[in-house]
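Write out this protein's structure.
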Amino acid sequence: MRNNGGDAGRGIGHGPRMNLQQSVAPAVEEMSGAPLGFVEFVALVAALMALTALGIDSMLPALPAIGQALDVAGANQRQFVISAFLIGFGLAQLVHGPLADRYGRRPVLVAALSLYVVANLVAAFSSSFVLLLIARFVGGLAIAASRVVTVALVRDCYSGRAMARVMSLAFMVFMAAPVLAPSFGELILLFAEWRLIFVMIAAVSAAILIWFVIRMPETLKPADRTPLSIARLVAGWRATLVDRLSIGYTLAAASLMGALYGFINSVQQIVFQLTQDQRLLVPVFMGVASAMALANLLNSRIVMRVGMRRISHGALLVLVVVSAIHLVIAEAGAETIWSFAILQAMAMGCFGLATANFSSMAMANMGHIAGTASSVQGFITVTAGAVLGALIGQSFNGTTVPLYTGFMAAALVALAIVAVTERGRLFRPT
């Protein structure tokens, strides 16, 4: 049986805990029927989302060891361990969305997480780099469901600023994964070889799968299930692609994701190039990821009062300025590990403020086809971002110039797209 909106407050208690109850009340007011208490709902959504980050970022410290074990000569070639996963992650979202709208959120996610566990076990025992890349690609295909289904699941229960707040809180918890994932990989490498990283990812995925099966009921009402048909699928795609907010903020997010994935692809090489010390990768990455987590926490606190457009458009303008400054430093050959870490953290803070709200605004008019819309938006955002990120990463030449040329271009393109989407009017709805 579903809980009503008041259940989000039950179990929070009285006294000192009342502040938390009061803080979630605005979100609950815009809720259409959350199946769990608010805190557990956000935590489970965040855990599902975090599996993607864990599958990406825990690999970073292991890339040299993987290359050495599987005879990968070029440092840039090792980036394909990340890129193969991301491309699979983007492509599969077109499939998961319609399946989630037809069969419901639960069966799609349960099947996908099960496949993800198997894919990581195959990667753990791969005897060649090609087999590893295939397993990574399949793992990306599988875990794409966690992105599509969770966004649709949140949209089933929340809308408007409340959805943006839930997504920001989920992102805040989810960002613990990229903060901790490199440490997770580094810790395993101290006691075992890189293969154990994949085994542990499989174990964590299995645990979250069990949590989901036990606690999360179906959120898609039977009346809202849509039959699979080419005509209906094309109609859903068309509705997603012709809606100004949907396509505009999806393309803007895709541009920014290209910069993010370029950073992830090349950060291990950049840190080593600047310091000649592989051990500094973890603290640098943790600092940068923490800035994004704090930005999402800030967004969750202020979005109900300030609004999505003021926050995201302002963050995008600041990102343009920060990227320009960083590119000038890189071009001048004055880059140090400190300038890299500090300015990259500022850029990631802006990224966090922008993208959490972009995804909510893109879904504003898509409630009737949330699964299909989420899949189309995710396909464009992740696939385009993965390709752009791979191009940026493969351009690494021993300096940070290619990365921040990419960041500057991505920020300017995103700003132009947002301006067109809002018909030249930033900070307020048109």
